[in-house]
Amino acid sequence: MNAKVNPKHVASLLRFFESGSKPAGGNGFGVEIEHLPVRNGSDAAVNYYERDGVEVLLNRLRPYYDAAQEHWERGRLVGLGREGITVSLEPGGQVECSIGVLHSPQELVGVYRRFRDETDPVLDALGFRLVNYGYQPRSGFADIPVNPKSRYAAMNDYLGRIGRFGPCMMRCSASTQVSIDYHDEADAIAKIRVGTAVGPILAWFFRNTPYFEGVDNPYPLLRQKMWDAVDPQRTGIVPGLYDARFGWEDYALDVLSTPMMFADLTHTPEATRSPGTPLERVAYRDNAADIYPDRALNPYEIGHVLSTHFNDVRLKDFIELRHWDSLPIARAEQLTQVVGALFYDVANLTRLMSYFAGVSEDEVVAMKADLQARGAESMPFGEPLAFWREFLGLEDLLTDEPGDPRHPDVFQA
Q1: Can you give the pLDDT at residue 238?
Q2: Sign of CA dihedral 256, 260, 264, 265
Q3: Average model confidence (pLDDT) for the chain?
Q4: Which helix (H) or strand (E) segment is 228 a member of?
Q5: Distance between CA 349 and CA 283 in Å, rounded?
Q6: Whether the predicted pLDDT of 248 surpasses 60
Q7: Do the Cβ atoms of 236 and 228 come closer than 8 Å?
Q8: Residue 26: its pLDDT value, please?
Q9: Which of 17, 184, 202, 344 could staple 27 via S-S, CB 3.0–4.6 A?
Q10: pTM over 0.85
Q11: How many Å apart are CA 311 and CA 323, to the nearest integer?
């Protein structure tokens, strides 16, 4: 590794990962569902700035949320929160509903229904709705401006020049993500390995992206296609993950040695006291050691550093599984049930760990490529998709192949 890494920063991340360890049996969930705002009648994307757009929606929802948890940038509202739920924006005005901590998948529906009961009447008055697709149904990325968050302006600059699909991913895509707990370092690494291996297979069974840039989607798994090409130094499989020696320190070194993409110094006291120092900027080559002082990182800095990586499975003080398209709530609950059964049932997790013992990073890359190339005819890890439907316990939840997702009822919440 040629990049300069500060040992104090490494130690900061290791302490942070350790702080996330939960007692065995706790087994919490966090679920994030991103929604695409589309105009009634045309299904065109609704952006943050337009009349009766996303900014107006957030302002009209303010009475339902805690004023102390509002998030403003440049004098404009970009986020809301209260106990158990946070409403935030993705770059293209996608409305993200983050729910947790949940103690069972079944709790998800009740919290989400309250969110929709409050939100849908406001949406009706504004003439648009929130839909669950992996990508905008009618609009392309060039039609959608980036919302006013400083982070997203920098990301748009950076990702617009690096790799492929950066602007598409930022402005038009939407996902469902499920987060789970870990008990210690060994448990965390085992779950990241298993999640990285089975996540793309689950993504096939939960796929929900019929359109791309206003035409029929040509890719079996568009979300995977976009993220694998956005910026390979911070996406895809964590380098070295399937090496038997891999641990938290290796994850920390990978994150800290990568250019930051976006340098956020808003909570770095040394920077705020230096006249003329920009507090937020694009960072094409500077990593954490170049940007942050020679000391332990504070909690905000740690959060920012980790948030600049977008691996298929991301480590924070929990494990974030990031493979899946935006899903209607019934399907999101099913997905959360599957995740719980696979990762929190000791027998199931042990079975998966045994199955994938000895698998290599190259084999996981080949599996992802096979799914992308052959779709329903693919053979992940040498087995047909019918095998994986049974092996992952999907028979009761997914009794039929998905129908045509362009059916009008796809636009329901």
Answers
A1: 96
A2: positive
A3: 93
A4: helix 222-230
A5: 39
A6: yes
A7: yes
A8: 78
A9: 344
A10: yes
A11: 9
Looking up tokens 């494990």, which residue turns up?
A: 319
pLDDT digits (tens, 9 = 90+) for 345-400: 999 999 999 999 999 999 999 999 999 999 999 999 999 999 999 999 998 775 44
The answer to whether residue 274 scores a pLDDT higher than 70 is: no
* Mean predicted confidence (pLDDT) in 152-156: 88
Q: How many CB atoms lie within 10 A of CB 233?
A: 14
Residues 6 or more apart whose Cβ sits within 8 Å of residue 44: 38, 138, 139, 143
* Residues whose CB is less than 8 angstroms from the CB of residue 280 and which lie 6 or more positions away in sequence, other chains included: 150, 151, 154, 262, 263, 264, 265, 266
Cα-trace Rg, the chain:
21
Place 154 in a pLDDT band, splitting at 50, 70 and 90: confident
- Residue 301 DSSP class: H
Which amino acid does the sequence have at 274? S
Domains and CATH numbers, the chain: 7-256+295-411 (3.30.590.20)
The DSSP result for 53-106, as a single string, is: SHHHHHHHHGGGS-GGG-EEETTEEEEEEETTEEEEE-TTS-EEEEEEEESSTT
User: How far, in Å, CA of 106 to CA of 108, rounded?
Assistant: 5
Which residues, in sequence order, are bridge partners of residue 97? Answer: 33, 87
pLDDT of residue 277: 64
Find the helix or strand (DSSP H, E) in which 250 lies: helix 248-257
Q: pLDDT of 111-125, one tens digit each?
A: 999 999 999 999 999
Q: Is the pLDDT of residue 411 over 70?
A: no
The answer for residues whose C-beta is within 8 angstroms of residue 276's C-beta and 6 or more apart is none
In whole angstroms, give the CA distance from residue 70 to residue 238: 34
Residue 404 to residues 131, 178, 210, 216: CA-CA distances in angstroms?
16, 25, 8, 12
Q: Which residues on adjacent β-strands are paired with residue 310?
A: 235
The answer to whether residues 63 and 135 touch, using CB atoms and an 8 Å cutoff, is: no
Question: b/e per residue, 217-232, with b = 16+ CB within 10 A?
Answer: bebbbbbbbbbbbbbe
Instruction: Say how far apart CA 258 and CA 309 lie, in whole Å.
Output: 9
The enclosing H or E element of 305 equals: helix 299-307
